[in-house]
């Protein structure tokens, strides 16, 4: 979303037109009239404090998509250049992000937050309160890895089971200082995270198949995180003292997923 003006090339710096708002439309998958959207500033501003900033109208941080609703969020008019100046000048672009599709509700009914939120956690469902059951083949004290989608309407969570028989679930962040920390983001600002976060590593401890009394897991410990497979300083180290010797009759394994963020590039100064 931009604002554009045209300058007289001969006698005056006054624009020949007003400052119309220009919303870029696409040929496919464009917004519909009542989609809930947020507006975020671009990075053309020389002040890094204004980069990737959520634009608000008083205390309102979202609106329904339309020209009129987006008027309070439009960028300021561009600064006039000296005359004569035969240029068409655009102001910095603001980005419109669709967060929630048109569902027929009034503007004030949504959004609870300016993004879609999904939580991941391991839980052992209680049979009396859920249709999801932990399979009998799972080792004791394991659970199910859930993906939980938070509702904008009422804050409720819809759970989706992803993986059975999970004994541990660790998320480790790699920072550009060479540090690898499981909790190192807590003290960082959003700008620090964008510039320092290099990758996110997910470690999931589970087992293949069911208990096999003819099999004994060969090691005394399992590293759930970066390390040699036996220990992990920044994730967790599970020993069979913790897990009980009977759990050595399961074929334990650790899944590792590494993700490099693509949309957290540091602001350009």
Notes on the protein architecture:
This protein has helices at 67-70, 190-196, 240-243, and strands at 2-6, 21-22, 36-41, 63-64, 88-90, 94-100, 118-123, 143-150, 157-166, 168-175, 180-181, 197-208, 221-224, 236-239, 251-259. The protein has 269 residues and is mainly beta. A four-stranded antiparallel beta sheet has the order 11-10-12-15. A three-stranded antiparallel beta sheet has the order 2-1-5, with no helix packed on it. A three-stranded antiparallel beta sheet has the order 4-3-6, with no helix packed on it. Strand 10 and strand 11 (180-181) form a beta hairpin. The protein is elongated.
Low-confidence stretches are: none
In total, the number of domains comes to 3
What is the CA–CA distance across the termini?
22 Å
The 3D shape can be described as elongated
- Helical amount: under 10%
Tell me the quaternary state: single chain
- The radius of gyration over CA amounts to 26 Å
Query: What's the total number of strands?
Result: 15
N-to-C SSE series? EEEEHEEEEEEEHEEEHE
